[in-house]
Amino acid sequence: LEQKVRITEKGVKRTYGFAKYLHDSLPNATFVGFTGTPIDATLDVFGEVVDSYTMTESVKDDITVRIVYEGRAAKVVLDNDKLKEIEDYYSDCADQGASDYQIEESKKASANMNAILGDPDRIKALAKDFVEHYEKRIEEGATLKGKAMFVCSSRDIAYRFWQEVIALRPQWNKVLIAEEGSQLSDSEQKEIKPMERIKMIMTRGKDDPKALYEMLGTQEYRKELDRQFKNAKSNFKIAIVVDMWLTGFDVPFLDTIYIDKPIQRHNLIQTISRVNRKFEGKEKGLVVDYIGIKKQMNLALAHYNKADQQNFEEIAQSVIVVKDHLDLLGKIFHKFDTKPYFNGTPLEQLNCLNMAAEFVQLTDKIEKRFMALVKRLKAAFDICSGSESISQEERDLVHFYLAVRSIVFKLTKGNAPDTAQMNARVREMIAEALKADGVEEIFKLGEEQGGEVDIFDDDYLAKIEKIKLPNTRIKLLQQLLARAIEDFKKVNKTQGMNFSEKFRKLVENYNERNEDSVLVSDVLEDFSEELVDLLQALKKEKESFADLGIDLEEKAFYDILLKLAHKYDFTYPEDKLLTLAKAVKELVDDKAQFTDWDQREDIKAELKVGLILLLAKHGYPPVDKDEVYKEIFEQAENFRKYREG
Fold it and tell me: From the centroid of its chain, how far is CA 177?
């Protein structure tokens, strides 16, 4: 009987020799190799691909993000003939089927490449373009955490590139405790080490100049650099690399990689994959090409799966999306006067933004369309913000729409306007305008010092009433009421759900109003008053427990018992209902004295039996006991969760 043996191992280069010995020793075994980027030698050892999980599938499964390509080789190659030489170099390597090792061994070719890439004028132009491109993305808020990786072709070029960058931006070589403007917790103060913004990641060489040798540090120091680059708040934002960190180094919020090194096939896929990791708010990863790797990227992607080329997107596509969305937004705003924003004082600009936010809230349909369009505009602009294909006029329009969206977002979500998503100049304008008198309360509400704001306070409601923009005032009232109801649910789930349903119907009726009444002031005023009335009713309900002579949680149990009485159409005396509510609270307190009470089945069972006996003792009619138990248990669990939190 022939014995079959299955051996599984990681199919990487260093295992090929071992795999051959195993194959010779066990000729009848089935060999399975696992690898992310198989090369020809992988197939020679392990055979044809049996199954593959492609980048396309990974993006579809929401595990990675799409990669966008931006070619900038023409910005730094001073001679077109030199660019042709780089292309010929790649072509020769491809024709010969050369491996990375063979390419490096081809001294004539690599020496020629280093002469081209290391030309002093080119490095100077490279540093200038990189600084401008990187700063433009930072200014536009187009990068998540400001992290970028720059891949150089050699140690010498990397060092000279670093010197040119520091000559342009000496402040980047200044050691800061953390990124500017960040607030650090106690644990973060221990984790984050003072660092420069830009660092080189290379091992030391015995022939390195003294300054470079000391800068590169020890192996332990490089481990610390690894930790700091992976920390979003660290001041270390730009990593210059040659060979290190190109594989197996994951920083999910890294969204930009600059490549100025000839890289072949599987290594190229590994390298560009540094920016395709998933992270909240990250739509795509950007690959900026300074050497002309586009053809190699296409070949590499096609080598593994032709469908993967669909996930390699040209930056020109993002430019088209930006221009198309500006056109669509222009159609929405064609009747709106934007001149005060583009030509006015800071106060006039801010008032124009507030008026624009009011304008897009005319109907729920317009508002949702506007918010969706600007969201897609922002995602595309984040990618192509460094491109010269976007004119200054178009940039100004993008900044305008993003600022308007931030105001509407505040009114919807209740947060401060998301100025982090705004252009730096717009942020400065708003900060300046807020110092002036006569500013609408939109930007100021919720920003008061001293912690929580009492939204039921008459003075606070009076501030809202001062807002002259009716749609904005309504949206702010809606947001405040929604927040108040959610807070009330935490202490009284039954009444909270009741108010939530009333609020839903109120808003639904308003959004479905006849189009002819969209601009009728009486309709807007009536709805505003209805929202205030509901807010006042909620305030009264929150304080009603005191009038009954019971506490807040007893009132919640009282409401549950009263609701069930109405549901099953029976009467139960008020005084007995109050007594029963207190007894239920006492029973729950007794059973819930342990921190894990809501996880223990024995305590839950005791509570359920106790409730059945308690209801029978107090003569509460025989309704569905499971329903009574379920509602009381959920209320008790809910109350303690938020009270302890």
Answer: 24
Domain extent, residue 359, equals 321-529
Name 336's Cβ contacts closer than 8 Å, sequence gap at least 6. 355, 356, 359
Do 590 and 517 fall into the same domain? Answer: no
Provide the 3-class DSSP secondary structure of residue 82: helix
pLDDT tens for each residue of 415-440 = 544 444 555 666 666 666 555 444 44
Residue 181 lies in a domain: yes
Cβ atoms 419, 406 nearer than 8 A: yes
β-sheet bridge partners, residue 241: 151, 201
Q: Tell me how far apart the alpha carbons of residues 258 and 148 are, in angstroms, rounded to a whole number.
A: 8
CB 482 within 8 A of CB 501: no
Are the beta carbons of 421 and 377 closer than 8 angstroms? no
| Whether residue 555 is found in the same domain as residue 464 | no
Indicate if 74 and 195 belong to the same structural domain.
yes
Half-sphere exposure of 601 toward its Cβ, with a 13 Å CA cutoff? 0
For the chain, how many structural domains are there in total? 4
Pair (455, 562) in one structural domain: no
Does residue 157 lie in a domain region? yes
Q: Are residues 556 and 619 in the same domain?
A: yes
Whether 93 is in a domain gets the answer no
Nearest to 528 by CA among 486, 469, 456: 469
Over the stretch 577-604, which tens digit does the pLDDT of each residue have?
Answer: 888 888 888 888 887 777 777 778 888 7
Asked if residue 285 is part of any domain, the answer here is yes
Same domain, 473 and 562: no
54 neighbors 304 (Cβ within 8 angstroms): yes
Tell me the residue type at 370.
F
Asked if 257 and 275 count as a contact pair (C-beta separation under 8 A), the reply is yes
89-113 tens-digit pLDDT: 655 554 444 455 554 445 455 566 7
pTM of the model: 0.66
Alpha-carbon gap, residue 584 to 557, rounded angstroms: 7
Number of H helices, E strands in the chain: 29, 9
166 with 195, same domain: the answer is: yes
